[in-house]
Write a structure and sequence with these properties.
- By secondary structure, the chain is of the alpha+beta class.
- It contains four helices and six strands, in the order ααβββαβββα.
- Strands 3-2-1-6-5-4 form a six-stranded antiparallel sheet, with helices on both faces.
- Helix 1 packs antiparallel against helix 2 and helix 1 packs parallel to helix 4.
- The longest helix is centred in the C-terminal third of the chain and has 17 residues.
- The protein is globular and about 40 Å long.
């Protein structure tokens, strides 16, 4: 994961716009990490209590707006805690983006102590979320927070 972290740092330091940085990070994670089949960012609209889809890499999704509390992403918007599901079929509140998704992780992004968004990763494999991947994503959200 050290190589991935170094490449993330290069993207953050060299890309022009925030959206370009986020898209390149999504593409890097999807293309280079086994089991990361869809990678995207959602950002909070606290007034409307909705998550808006930002840059992503993977299949198109109809979930461009997710109400707070709905699905795993909406749940993280409310709980402010990382959510990991090694088997999405076992989740009561799962919002299916793809019939191929087997596991998912959603990590919130905080700016000045406020949850402003999240990174959402879907995998076509069960049990795809290792401790190493969790650590990478939690570190990534801190780097993202610093540029937003």
């Amino acid at each position: 994961m050290d190589k991935i972290n170094k490449r993330i740092d290069i993207i953050i330091n060299n890309s022009s716009s925030i959206d370009e940085k986020l898209l390149k990070i999504c593409q890097l994670l999807k293309n280079e990490i086994d089991g990361f089949d869809w990678v995207g960012f959602y950002f909070q609209d606290n007034e409307q209590q909705i998550l808006n889809l930002g840059p992503y890499a993977g299949a198109a999704t109809e979930h461009t707006k997710i109400p707070f509390g709905k699905g795993i992403c909406g749940q993280v918007a409310v709980s402010n805690k990382t959510f990991i599901s090694q088997d999405v079929a076992a989740e009561d509140n799962y919002l299916a983006c793809s019939i191929d998704t087997q596991s998912e992780i959603v990590v919130p992004i905080f700016k000045n102590g406020v949850n402003i968004g999240q990174i959402d990763i879907d995998s076509h494999q069960k049990n795809a979320i290792s401790q190493e991947k969790i650590a990478l994503l939690e570190n990534l959200t801190k780097k993202i927070s610093a540029i937003l």
